[in-house]
Design brief:
By secondary structure, the protein is an alpha/beta fold. The protein contains nine helices and eight strands.
Length: 253
């Protein structure tokens, strides 16, 4: 397919690389960030533009990969009659595109994407379309870069999945940030915890999180919990979270 990508951030970059690897042609990259657009255009041997008024109108698919809050302003004056246009946001309704074209939808990659990825990850893609043509086109595009992980998802399902993604990714990473700070203050090496993190994550490929839960909370080991809370007196934010999560684990058990 011939694709125009609007945006030059992490999602636009990683998806663009996967499209190129899959044999698609990126005929244009459009971004208000001129330097980033030029860099991607050079990498993908294509053209760049900084204004939507210069958009190439001969592509098959137009993909808007910008921040959620920027989508309404990006599409406000955009008109692409007869073309398939989609955005990549989980929390933005598909209908925001209804005035742009008769064929519109969503192409949501469920993955934390950064430009610096050395390898292109396997990305589950959630798609939706307002009509059969949009759905089939976006589904075909999704299968070309994510063979076994393409799923239909309407607005309500996507935002619910986004909540889950925020918690398991962003919230958990924030805990890592707090623990890294704790380790630094206590003279410990956070990197020594990485094998433990990787082992726990790997178990989830074959088992339910509930079935692999370990630790003093699930065992009801109050002696150890009290010792931990005493040590955490000097780390009030971490102590508060420790107490709340311990209570939640006990309740779920």
């Amino acid at each position: 397919m011939n694709i125009v990508i609007i945006g030059s951030g992490n999602a636009a970059t990683v998806l663009g690389r996967k499209f190129k690897t899959a044999g698609h042609a990126i005929v244009q990259i459009i971004s208000r960030n001129a330097s980033q657009a030029s860099e991607l255009a050079y990498e993908w041997d294509t053209e760049s533009a900084n204004y939507l008024s210069l958009i190439n109108r001969d592509a098959d698919v137009y993909l808007i990969a910008v921040t959620d809050s920027a989508i309404p302003s990006v599409v406000a004056d955009l008109r692409l009659p007869g073309k398939v246009i989609a955005h990549t946001a989980a929390s933005v309704p598909m209908e925001v595109l209804k005035h742009v074209s008769t064929h519109y939808g969503v192409f949501y990659p469920l993955q934390s994407l950064i430009k610096e990825m050395n390898e292109l990850p396997e990305i589950p893609i959630f798609i939706d379309g307002n009509d059969e043509f949009a759905r089939r086109t976006l589904e075909k595009l999704a299968h070309s870069i994510s063979f076994d992980h393409v799923l239909p998802a309407g607005d309500e399902q996507r935002i619910k999945m986004h909540i889950a993604a925020v918690i398991v990714n962003n919230f958990v990473n924030h805990l890592y940030t707090l623990i890294e700070d704790y380790c630094r203050k206590e003279g410990l090496d956070f990197k020594q915890l990485v094998p433990l993190i990787e082992e726990t994550a790997s178990r989830l490929e074959k088992a339910s999180p509930k079935d692999v839960q370990t630790g003093p909370a699930i065992r009801g080991d109050q002696v150890t919990i009290d010792k931990h809370l005493e040590i955490l007196e000097g780390h009030p934010r971490l102590k508060e979270l420790y107490g709340a999560i311990t209570a939640s684990i006990r309740h779920s058990g």
